[in-house]
């Protein structure tokens, strides 16, 4: 160590001591000579080196310089925007969250504030402030200091457009010279207004926010032309340091910086002293709104829309022959969604789930669900990032399980919003598994336009879109069976015996009814109104199983359909999207309307790339469609959806159908009026999670209240009340009796019940007897 120290000491003496010792030993004449040579060398370094560096940068030694044609073709990434039918911005798709605006659409307060603080001589120079540039070069080259500032607005624009690269000790001077050269080029190619607009459209305001349009909407919820003086000064002040002067996170810093901007505006005659004093006295007021991808209206819809548009954009080419990019090309997507109806649908779903989720939670706890379903829990835990991270650390299964049971403060996304809770990873997974989900699709049955799309309970918690998910349909599939029966010549008032039948050719399958009533006769209309399983299967057999499948295909159902009698009870797994599309034929006088959700796509130049065209296909005669509507009205008037009248007090004409699958795993409701059609599904992502009893788990208790909540909101809104008129534009000619007893004895002793027979796949009587014995 001593030897190393000695060597270091010798080196330091050689560098710092010996030159001075040597200089001190010189004669006066030689000292003068050495001084002159040193001065000349210093001048060469200061004057000639920058010139050489300038030619090296402009010559492309440090990277290719853009040509005039490339600068004229400047285009920054532009976010694509999604709009509702009523012109509400639903969301954006982007790499950089930026949307350009025009000079005339920006407040002059903003321009004045930016020029006063960033580049007071903006209208006088040709892209470069020479004095500032020389100051920066001197400090960075000779003094090796960080010399920020000195850049004009044009130079800052160059930095925004092209960024900076590292060149070691020459990083700052090379980048500054490069920016100065390109800035000078820009000044020759563009007017001052154009440069100023390019700057305010590209500059960062922090929080992944680029350009004045997004910043004005983010911090004040106004367009750039609506910015007040104090708002413009806040945004101009942020440019120095978007994070430090962020008015949301550092309001005190932002307020001080805003007042500095006012002082600069007074200094350069943009404000009088009195105006500056009055403005400085104003408090800092924000109207902050951050439009995250996971927030705002219709997140599940926007998620699906993104995938759909990216697939279709391949067929549209730009002028240069390249394909459009949804994330960078600033497209405008106009949709059929009505923002108010979307809001009503989302709130109706969440409000009802808030009522029934706690009930399900109590049932799961009381029944020891996760103790019995420990394998389900284990599988879910092994899929979590935390489990995988612990596994990669080499922990044993036992150690991992212990770690996952340790509680900590975590953010949970619930129906009641984000909540900070003290839970273990295992607890949080149990909460997610035990969560009910809901989906709702609202359409105009006459045009096929999708008016509202609810894909789940909380997008932040679960991104899976349940509108497109496939679940067993239960009894909401029955109207397709009955519609085929009408096409086959059956009459709505034809009576059919309610009896158990064993279908030997189908593995001795014997369907039964959830109410255990298997006597008397139901009219076809009565069987649909009360969702009678035994008769629905008989009708399916009469109409022909293959005919029912063919009709379902004609109605747009593409999912796999079993060619068995059980299809009448909704054993097929289909999506809400398919069912709502199928029901348009009932609601639209026998004509199926293809569902659509985009009206137009427009590029950045305003050229229409796509305009929607409605597509219709006649499936039923007008009479058959009206008969189906009338029979479905009986469901609401005196069938399984009677609570729409008895509990909710709705008086208008409503065609409805409830549905519940085996063990109440899925609850469904389909309902339409003369103006709108809406379908609802409720259930858990894992079918093992469900209500235990029929009273809580039936479709009329889980799904129908969401539809009712939406209907009520629409009825109360004068703008949309026309969608839910009191009557259909035709008379109800299905007025036959619903049910007849077979004999006088049965008439006296037979049971009549309003039990909700919404089920298509309810437990058989034998299964119920076994449960009672247990």
Topology record:
Elements: H1 2-24, H2 28-58, H3 68-72, E1 80-83, E2 89-93, H4 108-118, H5 130-142, H6 153-162, H7 171-189, H8 192-202, H9 212-220, H10 229-238, H11 251-267, H12 273-280, H13 299-312, E3 332-335, H14 339-366, H15 369-372, H16 374-382, H17 385-392, H18 397-404, E4 407-414, E5 417-424, H19 425-433, E6 436-443, E7 450-454, E8 470-472, H20 478-487, E9 495-497, E10 521-523, H21 524-529, H22 533-543, H23 545-554, E11 573-575, H24 576-587, E12 591-593, E13 598-602, E14 608-611, E15 616-618, H25 622-638, H26 643-646, E16 655-660, E17 666-672, E18 677-684, H27 694-697, H28 699-702, H29 704-716, E19 739-740, H30 744-749, H31 765-773
Parallel strand pairs: 1-3
Antiparallel strand pairs: 1-2, 3-13, 4-5, 6-7, 6-18, 8-11, 9-10, 10-19, 12-15, 13-14, 16-17, 17-18
Molecular structure report:
This protein is an alpha+beta fold. The strands form six sheets. It has a five-stranded mixed beta sheet with strand order 2-1-3-13-14, covered by helices on one side. The chain has a five-stranded antiparallel beta sheet with strand order 7-6-18-17-16, sandwiched between helices. It has a three-stranded antiparallel beta sheet with strand order 9-10-19. Helix 2 (28-58) packs across helix 7 (171-189), helix 4 runs parallel beside helix 10 (229-238) and helix 14 (339-366) packs antiparallel against helix 29.
